[in-house]
Structure to design on (362 residues):
């Protein structure tokens, strides 16, 4: 009897993309129907929800009207949540990292203080209106790991990953796959922020700042004539999923640095201000990716994860938030991905200006 042959991975990915193109809109309609009072063109922030959470003695966290979303509609907020389900064919080939060694882990850990020379760990960025969270959390985590591994402060380019990975990573500003970002780092590398910037550093005019801003085009050219695109590339040697056991996740962060995590966002998350978040009220909005940098336990004995978001410092606790640890709150412990930095093609000074000019004009 002939054995069944599985289709190539690229065919599986293409099938998934076609499936999404045909049915994702219908899925959004179904989700919207589950919350008939939540209109897509209404404001995401409502005083009644703030009062509901803050008057709940069991909530464990405080809500507020965050400046970041003052003028956002429900639709615009949902668009920020850019984590898409990994194509089924890709799931089979993702290695799972399990730490077998038994380390004596501290009860509290913060990567910012563990590696104080690595300034990138404490950066809070802003994805604008672009659904690029999957790219931000990946690039930020790899930047941190380069500093931890090689003692070099570096900011890698979200724009490179967002615009140049293409359909292998998903849909750019309309969402993508976190594990595919790490595979891109391994396969193609990622240039520095200096070479291909997402930010202008003086205001919100970077890609994604305006509603409806399209995914930037991949140019493969550094903005400055003194840096070569290929020589600005930084690679990872691996791309893997971290086993969901909390102690395993803690060991990964303790040994190798911050990781990228994904979780389901509900309406109430937009209001987070302080404390240890757990879902209290509101409809499901979508999937979001952030950077996990530590853990701890409150004075009341509640275990939490410490994470950096990319909604600027006007949101949450100066851009950070805590979420309940050990219960897979909103699925956060089952979607952890990372990779290790590579010494391949480490930053080199360009000595030949003519070569740089030729590369930029190609």
């Amino acid at each position: 009897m002939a054995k069944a042959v599985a289709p190539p991975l690229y065919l599986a990915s293409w099938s998934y993309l076609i499936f999404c193109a045909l049915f994702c809109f219908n899925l959004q309609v179904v989700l919207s129907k589950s919350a008939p009072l939540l209109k897509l063109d209404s404001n995401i922030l409502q005083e009644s929800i703030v009062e509901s959470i803050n008057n709940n003695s069991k909530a464990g966290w405080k809500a507020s009207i965050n400046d970041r979303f003052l003028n956002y509609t429900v639709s615009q907020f949902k668009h920020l949540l850019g984590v898409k389900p990994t194509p089924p064919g890709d799931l089979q080939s993702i290695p799972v990292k399990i730490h077998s060694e038994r380390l004596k882990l501290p009860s509290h850990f913060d990567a910012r203080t563990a590696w104080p020379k690595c300034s990138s760990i404490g950066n809070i960025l802003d994805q604008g209106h672009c659904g690029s969270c999957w790219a931000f959390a990946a690039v930020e985590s790899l930047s941190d790991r380069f500093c931890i591994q090689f003692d070099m402060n570096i900011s890698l380019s979200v724009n490179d990953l967002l615009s140049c990975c293409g359909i292998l990573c998903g849909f750019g500003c309309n969402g993508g796959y976190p594990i595919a970002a790490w595979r891109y780092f391994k396969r193609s590398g990622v240039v520095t922020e200096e070479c291909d910037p997402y930010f202008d550093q003086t205001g919100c005019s970077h890609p994604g700042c305006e509603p409806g801003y399209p995914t930037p085009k991949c140019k493969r050219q550094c903005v400055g004539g003194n840096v070569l695109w290929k020589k600005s590339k930084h690679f990872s040697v691996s791309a893997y999923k971290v086993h969901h056991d909390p102690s395993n996740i803690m060991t990964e962060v303790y040994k190798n640095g911050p990781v990228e995590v994904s979780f389901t966002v509900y309406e109430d998350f937009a209001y987070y201000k302080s404390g240890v978040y757990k879902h209290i009220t509101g409809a499901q909005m979508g999937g979001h990716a952030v950077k996990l940098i530590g853990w701890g336990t409150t004075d009341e004995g509640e275990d939490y994860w410490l994470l950096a978001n990319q909604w600027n410092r006007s949101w949450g606790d100066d851009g950070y938030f805590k979420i309940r640890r050990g219960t897979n709150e909103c699925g956060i412990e089952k979607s952890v991905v990372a990779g290790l930095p590579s010494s391949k093609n480490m930053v080199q000074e360009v000595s030949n200006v003519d070569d740089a000019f030729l590369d930029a004009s190609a």
About this structure: The chain has a mean pLDDT of 84.
